[in-house]
Amino acid sequence: MFEGSTVAIVTPVKDNKVDKAAYKKLIEFQIKNKTSAVVVCGCTGEPATLSMDEHKDLIKYTVDITGARCSVIAGTGSNNTREAIELTQEAEKAGADGALLITPYYNKPMPAGLYLHYKKVAENVSIPLILYNVPSRTGISILPETVCELSHIKNIIGIKEASGSMDQVSRIISLCGSGFTVLSGDDSLTLPIMAVGGRGVISVAANVVPLQVADMTAAALAGDWEKARRIHLELLPIFKVLFIETNPIPVKAALAMMNLIEPEWRLPLTPPSPSSREKIKEVLIKHGVIQ
């Protein structure tokens, strides 16, 4: 039920507080530029630096300001199953259309633990759930076979795949079939993933170039691979520069250069180095994002 371009939206802060005025401006920018859904409090939204109250409030605020204009997917994952259930229940209560749950990080559960973690969350809510596999951040990768087992649970409807492995993606699609949604979690692999049956992307780059990412995924879904390939190649330098340092450091720097947010990060994240900042600026100018 989720496809095309979904933005993993940043959480702007000002004077170390969530900047709701800037956040609303970002949401309007996304809706105006054909973004189909917003992920609030995903990794790009710095949930690790939000308090539980801030996290819940931002989910509710996102639902309130989007209305029915685009879908809202709440990042509600945790390495504590009880906390993941609590957050996901709060997202459902707030009116979110779905939830995105990262694999439990740090404690590195075995496949049986991963299965039971997601099963327990799914049993306590009715909204659609999307698994999130990003081993570079969590230290663990969910096996395709475990994904297949989970796909039989009614409200587990898809996965955001950011393992960087096309073999992993292909295996998941092969095992789970077309009824299970695979979304790219890596902008530079969106087109290859869609070519083997993925349905879209949960995108960092869409924060900066939402219309282009939306057009690329729409073209791929329509089978217009020539157009999708052309946009992919045009955007590749942006995809790459936005990961020149740890996400979301570069993308928040880019949005600040676009005068959409304040250039502020919560510790332990810091502003980009001067050399990284210049590279980000150079790419944005070259692609007409800023003057």
Describe the protein's architecture and organization.
The chain is 46% helix and 14% strand. The chain has 291 residues and is α/β, with parallel strands linked by helices. The model has no long low-confidence stretch (mean pLDDT 97). The strands form two sheets. An eight-stranded parallel beta barrel has the order 1-4-5-6-7-8-9-10, surrounded by five helices. A two-stranded antiparallel ribbon has the order 2-3. It is globular. Helix 3 packs parallel to helix 4, helix 9 runs antiparallel to helix 10 and helix 11 packs across helix 12.
Short description:
The protein has helices spanning 20-32, 52-66, 81-94, 111-123, 135-138, 144-151, 166-176, 190-195, 210-221, 225-241, 249-257, 274-286; strands at residues 4-8, 13-14, 17-18, 37-40, 71-75, 98-102, 129-133, 156-161, 181-184, 200-203. The chain has 291 residues and is α/β, with parallel strands linked by helices.
